[in-house]
Give the backbone structure.
Amino acid sequence: MIKFNTAFILSQDRVKNKQLGRQIERTVEFIRNTCELLEFDETEIAHAIGVWSINSFGTNLSPNLVDSRYFLINLPKKFKAQSILIHQLICRAATVLFPKLCLAAHNCIPNTYGVLRIAESENFPHFAMDLYASMDIPKGSQIHTTYVDTLEGTYERETILWSNYFFHCDCKRCSDPTELGTYFSAIACTSCLKNFVLPHKNASGEILWVCENEDCEYKNGIHGDNFKSLLFQTKNEANRIPNEATLNAIQRLENVVKNCSQFYHRNHWILIKIEERLVETISAFLAKVEKTLGRFSKDEHGDLIQRVIDVSEHCLEIGDILLPGENMHRGNNGLRNFVMNE
Ligand SMILES: [Zn+2]
Ligand SMILES: [Zn+2]
């Protein structure tokens, strides 16, 4: 079961996805003109590229895991001297295709999670993916992975799935504007200022934001791109806060969370992402205090400890619905919650 439709790649999406169009043109040119392999026509080559691009996985390594031996060699000199720039450049370390793993289908509530392993032989990295079941999978049912960040909303997931994988997801989460009652994408209505607007996706993947208020002018929906700039602003505001374990960073994250409450539902994905960062930052700050003073006291740091417990519980509550089972999201939040409760 190769999840790929040739007609898509050859028609409208090739025009829409300019990068893919160029890739196909260059590859056709190389195979037919440079290599003179005329037995492969443009349709076959485009099909092969499509199968590859839809079924492969990107290995987006965290900068501190990147092994300079593999990736600095071909970079221009000016970048070799600037480690920060190098890290930004090489977040995509490789694109890999696993023959068995590509049989697993996408779902926005996956029942597995993958762990990428890198082994070395003959001085070259070899990638392998271990796939773990995050919940019981009944015999004969579909194994699901995910092609998107499941901690983003329906609009964001749909945009990535359509522009990179050429399909519209109709899983039970995508078909439910409330995302299983979590209100994970809910934004405060800018018209009636009373209710939330929710993403309603039709069969052709088009998203309309519909207000829950029957008397609101947005009850029939407004176009999906309308709230892009609000999300962009919030992301920017959070991104400007340095990744450091300081009281200043904690305070600034708290301010963004507070500011978000007027624009988004309290379970909105962008708020959950910022809350997860807040939990991570407070935990790192307390660990730093413990390292310096030998311990941190409940009297002095009780508020911060309680904040980690409350916020991680909120993240776990949403995770239990949208990312159920045993997975890394549950592991990270659960561990911080457990440590602070101790
Ligand atoms: Zn879905
Ligand atoms: Zn409204």
